[in-house]
Each structure stands twice: as structure tokens, then as C-alpha cells.
Design brief:
alpha+beta, DNA polymerase, domain 1, Cytidine Deaminase, domain 2, 2 domains, 5-stranded mixed sheet, 9 helices, 44% helix
């Protein structure tokens, strides 16, 4: 009699473990559960482990560019589709925790949203969160995209856009693809220039967040604003 495949019953066991304690699953097993959707039968553990080995974490896998995902053996259109579905769902959950709330009273959600949206991007992006008089979110826009270590920022454009939206305050956000969220001298100088332009017009710069794989930094917390 032929020996049964080693993965026989693995899917149901993994689903049971997830139902009992979802936080206890390592990243590769959580990824396996996603891949169950993409590949109806067979062992997906090897693909899951290969993806984690290539990109590092579950979050980095779902945020990875399509062309790089496709370089991993066994990853086809169905897997890419489902990974990007998870990425978009994560972003919408994160922004849902911020919308229709006073942003400054739910700051942990703001940071989580920004990290979900930007921390694993391969190029620098500069994002603006526009707030009303009650610090509610009225706009969320990526103003500029750049290279792996630089994005052009035009302070006058930022202030002009805030005026167009009748924003009373803004939170500046950008990512460091290197992973290190520590602000550079250029980051500090640029932030000071934006503050100097915005303040006379009644626009408050509440904070400048830098997000990366290794965490985040806040200019407000660091005493830089």
C-alpha cells in the first residue's frame, strides 16, 4: 500500500489550531492558511517557507512587489492575487480604525495605519494626513514618490493643498525603505521649513512620522516639533 502524503490532514489541523489560538501561529503557518485559498490541494508549506525566507515576515510577503513575488518558485497568478487581496484588506482595516475619529485621540491607530500602508514599500513616499478643526481626518494623500533613499518634497505644495482642503492641521508621514526610522538632518530641515510656511496661515503641523520595518519615529515625541 502506498504511503499517505505527509501533508494529509495538515490543512484541517492547521485550521483547528488557528481557530483555537490564531496569535500563536508563526508567520509561515499563517501564510500557509492564505495559500490554501490559492492552491486547492497539495502541500504549500514549502512555498510559504520560501516566501518568508525571501522577504522576512508575513507583512513583508504581502507587501512585496508582484514581480519579486513571481520570482519565488511555485508562486503563480492565484497566489499573487490572494496575497495582494490580504494586503489591501489590511490597509482598509487600518484606515477604518482612523476614519471618523479624532486622530489625536487614536494616535496608535494612526501609526499602525501608516506602518501598514508604507513601512514595507521599496521606495520612499511622502504622505499627508489632513485634519479639520476637531482633528478629524478629512484627507489622506501620497503627495510624492521617490527613490530607495529620497523623495522630493515641496513645502509650498503641501501648504497649498492644505488650504485647498480647508485643513486646520496636518501630519506629515514618510517611510525609510532602509528600515531605520531615525530622522536625517534633511528630514529635520524640511520639516522646519513646512512648519514655518504653515504656521502664519493657521495650519498646525501636529507631527512628522517616519515609518520603517524596524518601527517608527515621531518628531513630536523627539522634541523636534
Amino acid at each position: 500500500m502506498a504511503e499517505a502524503p505527509h501533508y494529509l490532514g495538515h490543512r484541517s489541523r492547521l485550521r483547528d489550531r488557528f481557530a483555537q489560538s490564531p496569535e500563536a501561529l508563526p508567520d509561515y503557518e499563517l501564510l500557509e492558511l492564505v495559500l490554501f485559498r490559492s492552491i486547492a490541494r497539495g502541500d504549500v508549506k514549502g512555498i510559504a517557507k520560501a516566501l518568508i525566507a525571501r522577504f522576512g515576515t508575513f507583512a513583508e510577503v504581502v507587501a512585496a512587489p508582484v514581480e519579486l513575488l513571481q520570482e519565488v518558485k511555485g508562486v503563480g497568478p492565484a497566489i499573487v492575487h490572494d496575497l495582494k487581496l490580504v494586503e489591501q484588506a489590511s490597509r482598509r482595516v487600518a484606515i477604518g480604525a482612523v476614519r471618523n475619529r479624532q486622530v489625536l485621540s487614536s494616535y496608535a491607530h494612526v501609526v499602525e495605519y501608516c506602518r501598514t500602508a508604507m513601512a514595507f514599500a521599496e521606495r520612499e513616499e511622502f504622505r499627508l494626513l489632513f485634519l479639520d478643526k476637531k482633528n478629524g481626518l478629512i484627507g489622506d494623500e501620497v503627495m510624492h514618490k521617490g527613490t530607495v533613499d529620497h523623495t522630493p518634497v515641496y513645502p509650498r505644495e503641501i501648504v497649498r493643498r492644505a488650504l485647498q482642503l480647508n485643513a486646520s492641521a496636518v501630519i506629515l508621514v514618510h517611510n525609510h525603505p532602509s528600515g531605520d526610522p531615525a530622522p536625517s538632518r534633511a528630514d529635520i530641515e524640511m520639516t522646519n521649513e513646512i512648519v514655518a510656511l504653515a504656521e502664519p496661515l493657521g495650519i498646525v503641523v501636529h507631527d512628522h512620522l517616519i515609518v520603517g520595518r524596524k518601527g517608527h519615529s515621531s518628531f513630536r515625541a523627539l522634541g523636534l516639533i
